[in-house]
Design a protein that fits this description.
Distance between the termini: 33 Å
Helix content: 40-55%
Order of helices and strands: EHEHEEHHHHHH
CATH class of the largest domain: Mainly Alpha
Strand order of the largest sheet: 2-1-3-4
CATH topology of the largest domain: Glutathione S-transferase Yfyf (Class Pi), Chain A, domain 2
Largest sheet: 4 strands, mixed
Number of strands: 4
């Protein structure tokens, strides 16, 4: 089996199971016991010097960082279906929202939750209010980020919103709630949730 995701259901790797289900190819989940520091083991650090999850291996290819893994999978295995082709104007919007999640939403939300003091003009995410307004506009008046067609950008951007609503880091506005409900209806996401939940149950995992 070529595609192997180094995985723990309490890590960011849990969110990469969904994109793997979307591309529709066989893959393996290789459990990394982060509760016992498995992500810092020499063999794992050799794959990702940060000593973190997720890590995807595809034969001899190693990809780290959740958004990069998602973009890689879409281009490599669902090009033109989950990833607009390079000559498609939608490619620009696709890349914008795919990168918006890790570079704007995540730090912007953490800054708000942590009470950081900063000048909006000096940071990539700007003001929290502008960030939220931009996010809501992206998912209002259309089914998915690119219109009627789901793309890997929805797994990255939408997956971030979905998680942050679950942990109450974002307000459950009507626009966000409706968008996440559309994502939750996807069979691939339902399969991914079930796989993560099954591993939690099989291994008797608990937070803390």
């Amino acid at each position: 089996m070529s595609l192997v995701l180094h995985h723990h259901p309490f890590s960011r790797a849990a969110g990469v199971v969904w994109p793997l289900e979307e591309i529709g190819l066989p893959y393996q989940l290789q459990f990394v016991d982060i509760m016992k520091g498995g992500q810092k083991a020499p063999e794992h650090v050799a794959l990702n010097g940060m000593g973190k999850l997720p890590v995807l291996t595809d034969g001899d290819t190693v990809v780290t960082e959740s958004a990069a893994i998602c973009l890689y999978l879409a281009d490599r295995y669902a090009y033109g279906r989950l990833a607009p082709k390079v000559d498609d104007p939608a490619r620009a919007t696709y890349l914008r929202w795919s990168l918006f999640a890790p570079s704007v939403i995540e730090p912007g939300t953490l800054a708000k939750a942590s009470g950081w003091s900063y000048k909006p003009s000096s940071v990539g995410w700007g003001s929290y209010e502008e960030m939220l307004a931009t996010m809501e506009k992206a998912v209002t008046g259309r089914k998915f980020l690119l219109g009627d067609d789901f793309s890997m950008a929805d797994a990255i951007f939408g997956g971030t919103i979905r998680y942050m609503l679950m942990v109450k880091m974002l307000e459950a506005t009507p626009a966000f709630t409706a968008y996440v409900e559309r994502l939750n209806a996807r069979p691939a996401l339902q399969r991914a949730d079930a796989k993560n939940a099954a591993i939690v149950e099989e291994r008797g995992l608990k937070f803390g």
